[in-house]
Amino acid sequence: MICLMKNKKKNIYRTAFTLIELLIVIAIIGILSGLIVISMKGSIDSANDAKRKAGINTIRKALVIYSALNGNTYPVESGCNIGANCTTNFNPALQELLPNLPIDPVSGYYTYSSNGTSYTVSAVLSNSNYYNYSSSAGFTSGITCLSILKSGKSTGNGLYTIDPDGSGGNASFQAYCDMTTDGGGWTLVSTKVSYNFIPWSSSLNNACAISISADCASRINTTIPWITAMWRFSDTDAYVLKFNKLDKIEFANYLEGTTINNNPTVRLTKIVSGVTTGPTDVASWHYYSTNGISENHGNSDRWGDMWNAPDGTNNYIYVQSANMPGTKCITGYCKENPIWLMVR
Q1: Which of 71, 81, 137, 283 could bridge across to 109 with cysteines, CB 3.0–4.6 Å?
Q2: pTM over 0.85, yes/no
């Protein structure tokens, strides 16, 4: 009897788990749970991205019909969220063709812009890539400062690796991103430090995207699906000058590297200490490949003067040094700090 009881006890001891065995089991369960969560997130992201692509394609088809019914034109918008802050030019027009507007599964909105003859609809995918349909370029995808911001992966102003053309063949590169000014998402294009320096160029120089404190000339990278250009001083966002490319295609072409010497009326917007003025038609806006950009030197001096030589008038609000009027001035303020051209 005693032997039998001992054997039973031995069997009981053999079926119990040791502390090490329990820890191993717990670790395995934790790893498997983590893999399941990652797999589920990947599946959710894929499903959301599929919805975004389908939504953009649905909007594209509706715009094709709209164009056919309206003399090959599209609703004019400078950049708005479909179903939210688009004007009466767009929302009612599209809702007649799409009573249930597609919505982004996370942000709720797709972005739309058009000058009436061409348009772009865009979203941001789960991997921070933008996904666009443009009536002129078709479907495109890539990573920009704006797509990083919209995906929630911004860590504030600073250097990021971007790849504007995605799988298009051009290498990714580092760029300084302004993630705070006027909503953020701005990519640095060129920098003007010296009075007589012309930051315009017919060539692309991606090194300028990280040149925050030295003269660097470049055209805008055309693989970035930009709508708005912005000029600001490097040390403050209190003085901002903005241009929407849909308002003057010729000036947009100049910024993208086309050699042009012209001085037409251009629509601009300025922000001074949080107060927005415009869009306003600024007469005799000079953009010269050989000199830079500037309003007419006899004008108000309250928009932009980034010429390669001083002007003879001084209607500026603030001038930091005598050599600056006409050369390093934004919204009436002339400062020693670098001027950045940025786009989004």
Answers
A1: 81
A2: no
